[in-house]
């Protein structure tokens, strides 16, 4: 058939349009921030390199327009506008920071690719390039992610944690101006923008466990765009996807019974069996922390890469057994005294910082 010979493929019928891959440019929706367009640009470039014309379409999200704390404007604030545009057929692909995506999937949409992850660690940017241990008690450290705040408080260093919001430039500017002694942000954001030289310290996960899916992208499209699903699948990195599946399963499982901040990180590691055979496994670590830093619960598991999501569920169950649900009360008290308790539908809760159904995602747009 002529179509087959000329490589013409069709997709997008579900959205009421016939999208011809060979002739039409794939529209990649992204938020307008420098970090978001840089991330989506890597997906565009990979598609073009594979012979598929692609372009970026900027979608303004409520999260970009509001300076309100994310806890007030709701989780999913950075991702739901992109998903709506995708469902409506205004774009063909949405590129998200995976950690900002609610754990609940969107009907009719699928994560067709999880490209190779950037370094998932959290990073300290400080005046004078000091590492965490060099900051004297009383130093003022900016971060709004409850997960980061809780773990920093638990360090016992006597740091004063202050809220932080705004794009990367704004946040880095608060260190440069002396308003803050340091900030804690995702290393991945700095690396993607070529500013990793500003990192004073990248935290070992034993010190500060990153958010589930930190440093990873979710490349989403309509489930019925079969042709596009298979094109995007070429951008998928199986070890990254397995790690994210495990980390997100921890988060999703804990959402049911725990509102405290959650960190999780998985790595594909090499193990050796009794006969000396080397094989790969998934190593998963997670933490649930009281927002006030008074308690942390950690657990880890190693298992088959094929069982990524199951490992995450099992680890979450173990954390609950160890008392993760009891940290809720502490978190609730903390929120009550803060006076900004704001409960959202927990089925939407997800994002970075965890899970906390009220504080929702990490309160820092990027
Ligand atoms: N919650 C905001 C957000 N979403 C993604 C990133 C950075 C990139 C990433 O973590 O993948 C950030 C900023 C930050 O946490 O410092």
From TrEMBL:
Residues 244-320 form the Porphobilinogen deaminase C-terminal domain. The modification S-(dipyrrolylmethanemethyl)cysteine is found at residue 258. Its cofactor is dipyrromethane. Keywords: Porphyrin biosynthesis, Transferase. Binds 1 dipyrromethane group covalently. Residues 26-228 form the Porphobilinogen deaminase N-terminal domain. Residues 334-366 are annotated as: Disordered. It catalyses: 4 porphobilinogen + H2O = hydroxymethylbilane + 4 NH4(+). Pfam families: Porphobil_deam (PF01379), Porphobil_deamC (PF03900). The keyword Chaperone does not apply. Pathway: Porphyrin-containing compound metabolism; protoporphyrin-IX biosynthesis; coproporphyrinogen-III from 5-aminolevulinate: step 2/4. It is an enzyme of class 2 (transferase). HAMAP family: Porphobil_deam. Monomer. Tetrapolymerization of the monopyrrole PBG into the hydroxymethylbilane pre-uroporphyrinogen in several discrete steps. The porphobilinogen subunits are added to the dipyrromethane group. Belongs to the HMBS family. NCBIfam families: hemC (TIGR00212). This is Porphobilinogen deaminase. It comes from Gordonia jinhuaensis. The gene is hemC.
